[in-house]
């Protein structure tokens, strides 16, 4: 396990950072001396998060993690500013409350685009620089209970 001191001053990337667990991850990383790139599709929620943290510790980017090019652009900018990520938090996710067979193909693609492809896009964009850096780094993938179980629907 990496000592917290090894992560201080390094970059944490958090998708779905506009609220909930993502905002909590961003705040905790800053409290541990890390720099944070907060990603979310909701600009107002990102602004509220940024306003609650020290200005020099956080950058925000309105990014849909289903968009590989947008994630890559955010990765390029953040890595140039703060170096490779020490912690990549694949946290963005959505759910569909209903029966699978009632979903439209567009709803299915959106769900997969964020919940599955989004984690891939983050890792694809950030992880090569983390590995090349040679220092310890971490990946955190969060899921709701829906990712661990299935229901009748």
Describe the fold and architecture.
With 153 residues, the protein is of the alpha/beta class. The chain has one domain: 3-Layer(aba) Sandwich (Rossmann fold). The chain has helices at residues 4-7, 20-31, 43-51, 68-82, 105-133; strands at 11-15, 35-40, 58-62, 85-90, 138-141. The chain has a 5-stranded parallel beta sheet, with helices on both faces. The longest helix is centred in the C-terminal third of the chain and has 29 residues, at 105-133.
The biggest beta sheet is recorded as: 5 strands, parallel
User: For the record, what is the CATH homologous superfamily label?
Assistant: NAD(P)-binding Rossmann-like Domain
**Largest beta sheet: strand ordering:** 3-2-1-4-5
Mean pLDDT: 93
Helix and strand sequence: HEHEHEHEHE
CATH-defined topology: Rossmann fold
Beta strand %:
15-25%
Helix/strand structural class:
alpha/beta
Which second-level CATH architecture applies?
Answer: 3-Layer(aba) Sandwich
CATH class reads Alpha Beta
Termini distance? Answer: 40 Å
